[in-house]
Specification:
two-stranded antiparallel ribbon, 39% helix, globular, 8-stranded parallel β-sheet
């Protein structure tokens, strides 16, 4: 079957992954209202195309944190890629290296950061980090990714506790015995503490606060990007605390159910930040026109989570490449049909909010 759009990959993955694995990737929190609204929200936004603009030549390149990427779509941090494909994150890293875009590697990878860096030595990578009760765990990860050439730290701030994902509870989700959270290999001794997503429960620190941003700045010179901001108030605090970027995100609808779709939160954050730092968005991007809408609302780049995993499930590295290439082609076409020759010409005049 020809894979024409991202939903083709979704259907393939649902058919071929085990139920527990599919449910883990698909899960939202509670009633999944926010997860589903992430997608619906894009459909409420209408475009205002301009015509007769000579779009015979188009250019999708942009920069993130001063580095050029071939188009404004990167891979968001998602856990456990080896559940979808045996090479896991190494395949994801190679695909993003080939297409010259940004891959945010998850702390919860089933390949180590060393294996990922070795698989794609010239890839442009950021590292997603949590703050743990034992700060040394976080600090050791920072040291490792610095030495491996990762270019930024993405601090996830919306998980003081893990959201209630009903299907995972029903399935009693656990990593299969042959897989583990490779970055913590040998770190946690047998403690008898129940496991939560591959590491002992209660390892994350619910006391995390803005002072931990200062702590992170004190131990690294890498740019710090905060992931999980949904309000202009927190965006202003992020700027005041000297971070280099924000990812507007609701964790794929997996944390607080009933919060805004990330695309609906984007405009107020962009307006508050006023270009002082870069703003990105993830959650619900399924087409090239979704990418165009996000950029028109002020995002510098978007990141995709679940679609990358569907690509892995389909054909590993090649599947991820196909997913990214489809988004790139669709984005280029949508951009041209809207009258834009390059990303600099995309602005909020392109957006009309529908009355629906």
């Amino acid at each position: 079957m020809a894979m024409v759009c991202l939903t083709d990959f979704e259907e393939y993955a649902k058919e071929h992954l085990s139920k527990a694995t599919w449910d883990y990737y698909a899960a939202g929190a509670d009633e999944c209202c926010t997860r589903d609204d992430n997608i619906r929200a894009y459909k409420r936004i209408r475009l205002r195309p301009r015509i007769l603009r000579d779009v015979s030549v188009s250019d999708t390149r942009t920069t993130v944190q001063g580095t050029e990427i071939s188009f404004p779509v990167g891979i968001a941090p998602t856990a456990f890629h080896c559940l979808a494909w045996h090479e896991g994150e190494m395949a994801t890293a190679r695909a993003t290296e080939t297409l010259n875009t940004c891959y945010i590697t998850s702390t919860y990878s089933t390949c180590s950061v060393e294996e990922i860096a070795e698989a794609a030595p010239n890839g442009y990578r950021w590292f997603q980090l949590y703050v743990y009760r034992d700060r040394k765990l976080s600090e050791q990860l920072v040291r490792r990714v610095e030495s491996l050439g990762f270019k930024a730290l993405v601090l996830t701030v919306d998980v003081p506790y893990t959201g209630k994902r009903r299907d995972d509870i029903r399935n009693q989700f656990k990593l299969p015995p042959h897989l583990k959270v490779k970055n913590f290999d040998g770190v946690f001794l047998e403690t008898g503490v129940p496991e939560e997503y591959g590491i002992p429960a209660n390892t994350l620190d619910p006391s995390i606060s803005w002072k931990d941003v200062y702590w992170l700045q004190s131990i690294t010179r890498l740019p710090i990007i905060i992931k999980g901001i949904l309000t202009k108030e927190d965006a202003e605090l992020a700027v005041e605390h000297g971070v280099q970027g924000i990812i507007v995100s609701n964790h794929g609808g997996r944390q607080l159910d009933g919060g805004p779709a990330s695309i609906d939160a984007l405009a107020e954050i962009v307006d508050m930040v006023q270009g002082r730092i870069e703003v990105y968005v993830d959650g619900g991007i399924r087409t090239g026109s979704d990418v165009l809408k996000a950029l028109a609302l002020g995002a510098k780049c978007v990141f995709i989570g679940r679609p990358a995993v569907w690509g892995l499930a389909y054909k590993g590295e090649e599947g991820v490449r196909e997913v990214l290439q489809i988004l790139n082609d669709e984005f280029r076409l949508s951009m041209a049909l809207a009258g834009c020759r390059n990303v600099a010409e995309i602005n909020r005049n392109l957006i009309q909010f529908s009355k629906l």
